[in-house]
Amino acid sequence: MRVTSSVLDTTLTRHARLGYRVYTPADYDRTGARWPLVLFLHGSGERGADLDAVERNGPPRIARERDLPLIVVAPQLPDGELWSVDALRVLLDRVETDLRVDTTRVYLTGLSMGAFGAWDLAIAEPDRFAALAVVSGGGNPVEICRLKDKPVWIAHGAKDDIIPVAWAEGMAHRLERCGGHPKLTIDPDAGHDAWTKFYQDPALWDWLLAQRTTAHP
User: Fold this and answer.
1) Is residue 130 part of a domain?
2) What is the domain range of residue 202?
């Protein structure tokens, strides 16, 4: 898997600059094919100016350990910042222009603080993503019904003492009341770090890659 690093100028959004790392499959340059893409939002502990930090957890770490059959995009927030829907829209527009992305297979995932950002972005752009996977986080349930027809996987640790498991359960139950069918996985042995096991599970990647939507205009 090839790794590149870039900085996005997002002066029209709340973030002036947003660094990000891109992981492309080993076969990316050998074919003209378009590839699925997963956008990963990290947690609060990976904020800063050192892009190596985004590889501590989640899809970037998995991409370093084994070749994934998709593109991984991992932006990094500056210290003290929160995820911005507007900045992430600009980033997605950039990578979908610059890379050979199959826009029917764009996936969104995040852990902890990144899960909150992923919920916000998915609710704001429900037609842009083929699936959403969130772990060890929560979100605002007010407009969650916009995702009732979207494949959603929610994972959390039962022993989480940072973000209560009830927050994840509440999002899942609210989505069910809207007519949605989210997957809810509660790891009985996990604390806040439910993500290491979640992202290492091949079932997650098989599930993501099976999801498809209409192309983003």
Assistant:
1) yes
2) 2-209
Lowest mean pLDDT among 13-22, 89-98, 144-153, 183-192: 13-22
Q: Over the range 16-43, which residues count as b (16 or more CB within 10 Å of their CB) and which as e?
A: eebbbbbbbbeebeeeeeebbbbbbbbb
Residue from 127, 58, 44, 119 nearest 85 by CA: 119
pLDDT in tens, 68-100: 999 999 999 999 999 999 999 999 999 999 999
Residue 91 counted as domain residue: yes
Q: How many domains does the chain have?
A: 1
**How high is the pLDDT of residue 12?**
46
The dihedral region occupied by 48, where left means phi > 0, alpha psi between -120 and 50, and beta the remainder, is left
Put simply, whether the predicted model's pTM sits higher than 0.85 gets the answer yes
Burial 130-154 (b: 16+ CB within 10 A, else e): bbbbbbbbbbebeebbbbbebbbbb
Rounded to 5 degrees, what are φ and ψ at 85?
-60, -40
Say which CATH number the domain at 196 has. 3.40.50.1820
Whether residue 138 lies inside any domain: the answer is yes
- Cα–Cα distance measured from residue 25 to residue 13, given in angstroms and rounded to the nearest whole number: 30
Q: Does some domain include residue 216?
A: no
Q: CB under 8 Å to 100, separation ≥6 — which residues?
A: 28, 32, 33, 34, 35
**β-pair partners for 40:** 109
**Cβ-count burial of 206 within 10 angstroms (0-12 exposed, 13-18 middle, 19+ buried)?**
exposed
